[in-house]
Amino acid sequence: MQNHEDLIIVMTNVPDELLAKRIAHILVEDGLAACVNIGAPSLSMYMWKGTMEGTTEVPLVIKTVAGRRQAVMDTIAKAHPFDVPELLVLPVIGSTDAYAAWVREQTR
Question: Which fold has domain 7-106?
């Protein structure tokens, strides 16, 4: 296993499965992500403007490369209905060479 510092994971949550599928479709079809995992709806608890909120959200885990980071984030922000959508970028510190090569190929 080599160091694959160019690979990243982008995480976000969206209000419903339809929007999750739409964002995933755009990201993969446009070559911005190799794969998007759409998780099961779950309850998110957070403070918003001084009020405790509890909202069902659908998590997305997006596999891509660092060079596509800004385009991925811009695409999500444009489609997202929240004023402040969650956009977290996580580094990948290791992967199999074959998987890393596939991610790079899909996001060329």
Answer: Alpha-Beta Plaits (3.30.70)
